[in-house]
Write a structure and sequence with these properties.
This protein has 180 residues and is α/β, with parallel strands linked by helices. The protein has one domain: Rossmann fold, CATH 3.40.50.1000. The protein contains five helices and five strands; from the N terminus they run E-H-E-H-E-H-E-H-E-H. Strands 3-2-1-4-5 form a five-stranded parallel beta sheet, with helices on both faces. The longest helix has 17 residues. The two termini are 31 Å apart. InterPro entries: HAD-like_sf (IPR036412), HAD-SF_hydro_IIIA (IPR006549), HAD_sf (IPR023214), Heptose_bisP_phosphatase (IPR004446), Histidinol-phos (IPR006543). This is D,D-heptose 1,7-bisphosphate phosphatase. Its main location: cytoplasm. Belongs to the gmhB family. It is an enzyme of class 3 (hydrolase).
Length: 180
């Protein structure tokens, strides 16, 4: 396999990274992009990166909303990213929560971050190499999931996501890791 045929991917947590964290977001009307998020997605798309969202969605297990609600919001986000010149290639979400009131989702799974399951599933599905991937998340559980999956993790706390993305790319080019 030559260098040109190896896919590069950025994994994004959803709430607090791509969209403002509104505590169990599922309504399209409540969706608000983080400043610079659509621009970051457009830049990555035009530069040949795969864009994959990995998100814990325990609101399903808590009975606040359904998996259909999650899919509807993700379809909307993908459509809005396309309108801005970007893309979201795939979404992986974990609806599980140990001790959840909705018994169908009451489980200790390997996909809920900080477990690396969603990242590993995506890497297998999209035939990605760890060295060609990194994750941007807003919490320690995101960075830990990245570490466990063997990829770099970067902690986004505030500011414009497109500026933060460029700083992450610069760090990667210098061979420095800034995850736990």
């Amino acid at each position: 396999m030559n260098k040109e045929s190896i896919a590069k991917a950025v994994f994004f947590d959803r709430d607090g990274v791509l969209n403002k964290d509104k505590h169990y977001l599922f309504r399209i009307a409540d969706m608000e992009w983080i400043p610079g998020a659509r621009e970051a997605l457009a830049w990555l798309h035009t530069h040949g990166w795969k864009i994959i969202v990995v998100t814990n969605q325990s609101g399903v297990a808590r009975g606040y909303y359904t998996e259909e609600d999650v899919h509807r919001l993700h379809d909307f986000m993908a459509s809005e990213a396309e309108k801005a010149g970007g893309a979201i290639d795939d979404f992986f979400y974990c609806p599980h929560l140990k001790g959840a009131p909705v018994k169908a989702y009451d489980k200790d799974c390997s996909c809920r971050k900080p477990a690396p399951g969603m990242i590993l599933q995506a890497m297998k599905k999209h035939r990605l190499l760890p060295a060609e991937c990194f994750l941007i998340g807003d919490g320690a559980r995101d960075v830990e999931a990245a570490r466990r999956a063997g990829i770099q993790g970067f902690l986004f706390t505030s500011g414009r996501l497109d500026d933060f993305l460029q700083a992450c790319l610069k760090q990667r080019n210098m061979g420095k890791e800034i995850h736990g």
